[in-house]
């Protein structure tokens, strides 16, 4: 694999540069002209072409926080070895923040600005909406079937383990989350039906603290745009808020700060958008997948570790519910006034 990197560096004009692996897919390269990141990406040719097409669009549209791909001649491309594909971009060194706003709000501002720049609308017929609703509902049904199967399996234990007891005690909460998700989705779907169209924007796809960087000048950047493309802004926000909830389950940023920052810089936001955000944010699917992993391979962690991680996931989901309840109360107050 290292021989392949040396050959690749010759392709991109960085021969004789010092380099080392930073993770399983990222190589840091030191040159006289600065630092570069060489990232491995193993996807289909169609997915790679979509990735490059989306980044070209983002560059033309003036998107914020995108680290430009380069082949040292200034245009975007990917580089191939006999085993993998790679792309090259400047290395952005993460810097500690010495002044507000915090990293989370800086990254949220970038998301909001990009959504506003790229916001558009597209027609959706009643048949297309019905097809999409059926797909979503089938996904929920599969999740609920998994939830019931796990509950039945755990209840058959002669002596409930701490993990099983924690999971079963949370069962009414999971059911409530499915109900809240459905109400939110129905609110969004009604607006789409009335307008015969839906709004979308250019989305990162997986915005998170790990994929965000703050440079020495204080500017915020996002890495890993491989899953970027058109989508409702709520998809980016749900992913970002879920990531925040995992990092700050007991000391979260205030909901007012989060929603206020996005709405100050992003596109217009309405109750139907909040409905879709609610449907995406409040899913207990990560908890169910975690419980399935426990049922399949219980010896991967010690029992107390499994239980502590489950409790953390439950706390995160409860925080997300509190966020959405705050938002809905604010919208109700605005409507009544």
TrEMBL record:
GO cellular component, one term: endospore-forming forespore
Source domain of life: Bacteria
GO molecular function, one term: transferase activity
Keywords in alphabetical order: Transferase
Protein name: Phosphotransferase
Record organism: Salicibibacter cibi
Classification lineage: Bacteria, Bacillati, Bacillota, Bacilli, Bacillales
